Amino acid sequence: MFDALSDRFDGIFTRLRSRGRLSEKDVDEVAREIRLALLEADVNVKVVKQFIARVKERANGADVQKSLSPGQQVIKIVHEELVNTLGGVTGKLEMSSKPPTVVMLAGLQGSGKTTAAGKLARMLKSQGLGVLLVAADLQRPAAVEQLRVLGRQLDLPVWSAADDGPKDPVEVARTSLHEAARLGKNLVIVDTAGRLQVDTELMDELRHVRDAVRPTDTLLVVDAMTGQEAVNVATAFDEAVGLDGVILTKIDGDARGGAALSVKDVVGKPILFVGTGEKLDEFEAFHPDRMASRILGMGDVLTLIEKAEATFDQDEAKVAEEKLRKGQFTLEDFLDQMRQVRKMGPIGNLMKMMPGMPKELRKAEIDEGELGRVEAIICSMTPDERRDPSVINGSRRVRIAKGSGTTTQEVNAMLKQFKQVQQMMKSMAGGKRMRLPPGGIESLQNQL
Amino acid sequence: MSDLLVLLLILVLAVVLIAGGLFLSRRSSRPAPPPPPPAPPDLEAPPSVAAPEAEPSVETPDAVVEAPELPITAPEPPAPVRERPRLRDRLGKTRAAFSGALTRRGKVDPETWDELEEALLLADVGLPTTQRILEDVKARAAAEKASDSDAVLDLLKDELTTLLEPGDRGLAATAGEQNVWMFVGVNGVGKTTTIAKLAQREVDDGHKVVLAAADTFRAAAADQLGLWAERAGADLVRGQDGADPGSVVFDAMSAASTRGADLVLVDTAGRLHTKVNLMEELKKLRRIVDRTPGALKEVLLVVDATTGQNGLAQARQFAEAVEVTGVVLTKLDGTAKGGIVLAIQAEIGLPVKVVGVGEGAEDLIPFDPAEFVDALFD
């Protein structure tokens, strides 16, 4: 996507033959593309307008850096502006000087408040805080039970109304502070019922809950898939209870999450955390640069790099790469590297995140089981065979196939493929970017 | 940074080309798609013969099924006179204050078109669909020499209504046999609530309904459905938390046939359409229902009205995985206009079948294209 976007920009610039400086006309042309990208990402129409105005102002007359094409230059400006708008790296809650610190979560139905409450509790508990969960969602059937289950999983107390008692969320919230004092907890997380921002009755109730606990942090929970409506929601909740921050949930999908920009723009409060999966530990600090890339459809490069740094032995990988370029890459090295790469997650996901990956490969479905089979084949070889596959004769092939539970055809195909790639890498030695032949992977296959 | 990236790129490419290439080449060399490689055991296709699974026999249905004779709390007045609310009645009250009405101007000028575009974009219709529709309307306006902005707006409404018109909006059920409706969608769109409302409606209409709590993942999801089942007077079949949802579906269908229930509503766990393994699980659920040929009448994708452009990707992926038959649009009682269903119908051809406008059992209404379109421009 990033490539697609910058290619489109570059196309415009070549047509206009602008050099050196970005002219107003160039920027106008490009603004349309930026608008498209932002609208696709669900940034609110009105927010897009203002954003583009800001970008235009910055871009007009800006010098084009030598190392960048004009298109890349504009992207850089857009990206920077996005990061600026989205704010700094966050992930910290405001702590009260007089414990307990109270965190209140609010939002629409289904935005993920209860799950976010559990995740936040887990994170704060691991930071050594004594956490009390408060189930003030007495609206949705079994919401209290859901939080209780999470509490059990986390080994944390959950405060709520008695099952047969009166269902008054304000009362639950008020008494939770006594409970926190009784248990000696210094952090209280209040999960409220989901509500529409136009439901005056429930918004009043939310205000009463807030008044009962006087939260240190009032956080709005927003689904990353939210569209234009995000602006209305954020504005209304901010007006009603005064927000201190935002939690963005479900960013593990493929939604581009323009809602983040919309919400930040109208409320002006930081996005603190993001929910990245269904499990309780899938919860992170918000990184504006990653979000900016995501909104622009640039692939989540930074996450990828972080993952790579966490799993890869960099020096080893460099050696392997060097070997690969020189054509000294053996099946043994390949096995090592393949295992490392697979540690980072499904190959298909990696390829989707990787910028500059040929489109055909990006779309190709990678079957992890197949990779396992390749691993089995290599593992069934002797060290000698791995270092020098040319010694593999007919009977060795049969043995390898038997040992790995595959067929000799599969062993042959794998060896052939390996050899071709080895040669290809060698011929590309020194090149920074890999380019596949025009027909992509299919034609590569045909050539082989 | 970029060095590491290049390195990674090369290594991943090498892995993909060597390992991946192996099967890619195999795929392309065969005209027909090859049989999928053996999936992990729990995703294994169920045997084509509808033989009872091992699991249900371990967990005897009686142990997990709630008693059929449930006290129906708060007996409702008899159903037949019940009037179904209309979309317009439910939408009217909240809208006016929030959405800026289109300015009325006499002549059509470029700004008119910009305003119309903005209105559609603000309703989450999405740029590609919006632009295509507006192109058509522009052409029509030129042909019909409509120069008045009201006339253009009417043309646009007409165009949108026509776009939404096709499609069967009824929920299929055949009398005298088992009917299964399955509900799918991403997390938090309102699947369970929708099922609860539908269950109430169908029970009121004289059907015997079994709810299958196949969301065994989210904490207390089955409890939530159980409370609704109790209220609606429907039976509930559930498994343990974290149990195989397939066994729940299987149990629910056999429980339904033992008790002569004619409608089974399957509540599945919310899942993001990008999670391959969860989508495989969903396919498996469908296969289990399909063991009784013809029983599966509807696969309904539940979409939240606040959903943005991602809704299109959701619809595409779910339709591909389990052949969705229609859309349920929920939470239309807020200020969100749910324009994404326009894009879903235009791009994928899936009609909206039911609309949810609140949390009460009566807050479920049929979809009326003309009223929906009117509401877009309120």
Name its key features.
heterodimer; A: 448 residues; alpha/beta; 8-stranded mixed sheet; 21 helices; 57% helix; flat; disordered C terminus; B: 378 residues; 14 helices; 8 strands
Walkthrough of the structure:
The complex is a heterodimer of chains A (448) and B (378). Chain A is of the alpha/beta class and 448 residues long. Chain A has helices at residues 2-16, 24-40, 45-59, 70-86, 113-126, 143-154, 169-183, 200-213, 230-241, 258-267, 288-295, 301-311, 314-326, 331-343, 347-353, 359-363, 368-379, 383-387, 394-404, 408-427, 440-447; strands at 101-107, 131-136, 158-159, 187-192, 217-223, 245-249, 271-275, 283-285. Chain A has an 8-stranded mixed beta sheet, with helices on both faces. In chain A, strand 2, helix 6 and strand 3 (158-159) form a beta-alpha-beta unit. The radius of gyration of chain A is 27 Å and the shape is flat. With 378 residues, chain B is an alpha/beta fold. Chain B has 14 helices and 8 strands. The longest helix of chain B has 28 residues, at 2-29. Chain B is globular and about 65 Å long.
In short:
Chain A is α/β, with parallel strands linked by helices. Chain A is built from 21 helices and eight strands. In chain A, strands 3-2-4-1-5-6-7-8 form an eight-stranded mixed sheet, sandwiched between helices.
